[in-house]
Amino acid sequence: xxxxxSTQSTSSAPRRPEEIAKACEAIAFDVxxxxxxxxxxxxxxxxxxxxxIYGPREIVTAAGMLPVAVMGGGDRVEIVRGDxxxxxxxxxxxxxxIELALGGQxxxxxxxxxxxxxxxxxxxxxxxxxxxxxxxxxxxxxxxxHRPLVGMRFWENDLRALAHDLGxxxxxxxxxxxxxxxxxxxxxxxxxxxxxxxLRVEAPHRAPIAEVYALVRAGAVLPxxxxxxxxxxxIAAAKAxxxxxxxxxxxxxxxxxxxxxxxxxxxxxxxAGCYVVGDDLCLATRLVGEQVATEGVPPxxxxxxxxxxxxxxxxxxYLPNEEKGRWLVDRCRALRxxxxxxxxxxxxxxxxxxQPMLQTALDRAGIPHTCFxxxxxxxxxxxxxxxxxxxxxxxxxxxxxA
Amino acid sequence: xSTRDTEGGHVPKEPSxxxxxxxxxxxxxxxxxxxxxxxxxxxxxxxxxxxxLLLAFDxxxxxxxxxxxxxxxxxxxxxxxxxxxxAGHSEDVCSYVKCDLGMLRAKSGPTGKPLPxxxxxLLSYTGCFTFMKWFELLKQEFPKAExxxxxxxxxxxxxxxxxxxxxxxxxxxxxxxxxxERITGKKLDEDRLRELxxxxxxxxxxFVAVLEAGKKKPSPIDGYFGAVFYIAPxxxxxxxxxxxxxxxxxLREEVxxxxxxxxxPITPLGQLDDQRIRLVVEGPPCWTSFRxxxxxxxxxxxVVVASTYCKVGGLYDTGFRHDPRRPFDxxxxxxxGCYTNxxxxxxxxxxxxxxxxxxxxxFLVHSVKSCNSFSAGQLLMLRSLEKKTGVPGGFxxxxxxxxxxxxxxxVKNRLESYFQMLLARRGAAxxxxxxVTP
Lengths: 402, 438
What we know:
- The structure holds 2 protein chains of 2 kinds.
- In chain A, 49% of the residues lie in helices and 11% in strands.
- Chain A has helices at residues 17-28, 34-43, 57-62, 92-102, 119-131, 148-170, 176-202, 209-218, 224-240, 263-271, 299-310, 323-334, 349-365, 382-398; strands at residues 47-50, 66-69, 111-115, 136-140, 249-254, 274-279, 339-345, 369-374.
- In chain A, the strands form 2 sheets. Chain A has a 4-stranded parallel sheet, with helices on both faces. Chain A has a 4-stranded parallel sheet with strand order 6-5-7-8.
- The N and C termini of chain A lie far apart (56 Å).
- In chain A, 56% of the residues are buried.
- The mean pLDDT of chain A is 95.
- By secondary structure, chain B is an alpha/beta fold.
- Chain B has one domain: Rossmann fold, CATH 3.40.50.
- Helices cover 52% and strands 11% of the residues of chain B.
- Chain B contains 16 helices and 10 strands.
- In chain B, strands 2-1-3-4 form a 4-stranded parallel sheet, sandwiched between helices. A 4-stranded parallel sheet of chain B has the order 8-7-9-10, sandwiched between helices.
- The radius of gyration of chain B is 22 Å and the shape is globular.
- Classes of the chains: A alpha/beta, B alpha/beta.
- The interface between A and B is large, with 57 and 54 residues.
């Protein structure tokens, strides 16, 4: 029997933001996936995992299943067998994911979706087929041609095929009506997360990054309606909390879109004097931040279009002409960020190859930046504390913004 | 090992080697002269290259990964990589990319002369995610160049669906061709494209005959170290040309002659007639220590009878040919079918097939730090292949063009141990056979 994890307060008194965050942390970082097991026992339905940076959760939900974003084992899994599957020069996320699978923690998932994030995750889809032949495995080849009648059409066909396969597994093939309902649930969630982001921009001291991250990441394993309740509760609690602002620099964290840094690293950034007012953490559930439902466009087409037109510019998407650099500069200005922390996982080709291009754009715009590498199980945080502290000091004491 | 035909330590050159050298040398001369001749230049990649289409527009293809490996074989890649790392590129990422960017910064091509800037960056994204980042970086270096994106869907399920083919076809017709027409000012002549494809198919027939000669005992070819020379014209600028047809005919005749005479391939240590070990190799070569690594095999009388690397530019030995009767479909199928676009289970099945069909004693995985497309999953492939084939696998690690990641002594130790194990296993099998035979 899986241990049910409560997402709601047991008393009538409103919870403080740190209490909500603590509850979220228990859900988000549970590598036994107890919340998913509890949901399955409660509903008798199936769960589908997906890896960063994207899963069409709307379709999974419309097929009557629970979408679960699997973001590796973080610093909570000891790698015993995973190293026998990956050479030392490959990143950490796939080895901890395979460790979880071999350890049985991912048995709770009835299928797994592998987005075209990079070559490593692409090949992991094949490893999954070879290692777990009884599970549904699908590769999500999102389009890099962005024209409506070419790339978008290809992607829409792929999404329809996915809906069919998921329907065969769950017994509920999602039609346009079911998908529209599901999209509405996620659009509500996206609107709430946008409000949360707005709060961070206006008053970052009210929503510390570690709390925000735990809250957002809980959405990776919770049904979307439950997550929306939590986000709403947290925003209200954070606004009401008595938290004093500090003399911190406002930074954007970029590069951590797939393998996630340990939460201790995020706490370290803030302790070192950096308010994180924007980030690309946990992109698996946040790649599309805008509303997906589009007036006059059928749901499958809306979802296909969302990837092409509304997904964030990120290293795993092909965008020529320095579009991503310009987007980052614009985002810095919109969020009134003083600087950018380029945090990339070790051995992450997309993030690390992207970095020099982003640095060039930031240099041209005169925006300070610093960069470091991490792994999901990084334990040595002192050097990052010192680097982030120096970065914050340099912004606060020596730039024009100061 | 026989070293006949070698004199004074120099390995003799066969006519096909001389011809290839002439072809490539003339090609680089044409490239260097492009700014003067006005010939348009298209940068693209080997897997899924559209050479026939490019030649139909009389443009010159430049293949950055070939430039990088050529630099490595000339011992220059280390400096270029250092240059790119000084400019902010991580030591963790693909060394092909860094070598190429370093070359640009140093204003040098692999031959020492600068290469012309691209008129078009034709990003044929086939089986390598890093290609995308590479061309985003190149676009930053060459802001005036046009970019054509050809997204080739991955064969994750081991099949090409009509939707995948349709997607590639639409991009070819609506993205690639119009951009080629724009930069050249010419309309596509489909008859010319068909002519080129007819020649491609001729060369491809001969190329497959060369590769399949590896099934013979002794093998007249080395299907890995030797084959990287065999693939050079076909995977670069010479598919569809008379020179390409002539080269592969000449090569095939040489190989058939060697087979008829029971001779092995020419290696850095001379001709390898006495072949003790037959191997299949998965993974790209180490270009910085290419000769040194090949010599380690040759010294142990090990010949590679088949490899996956020489399929990155097309899987011809499973039946694909460019087809002049259906030129665009054929280009789409070509892109979709390259080895780098195959799923891990399909790759594993292919290597198992090679082990069986080429009667290999073992298979060796050469894992390179730079290439996640190849390397991620190779350890699982290794275990799966041992189960499927019943023959032992070996595992080596180094890099494509970064000399810092080749440790000669370690590689030699590992190879020697592996070869000894294969021979001991064969000896034990022979003993067992002798015991049961009265």
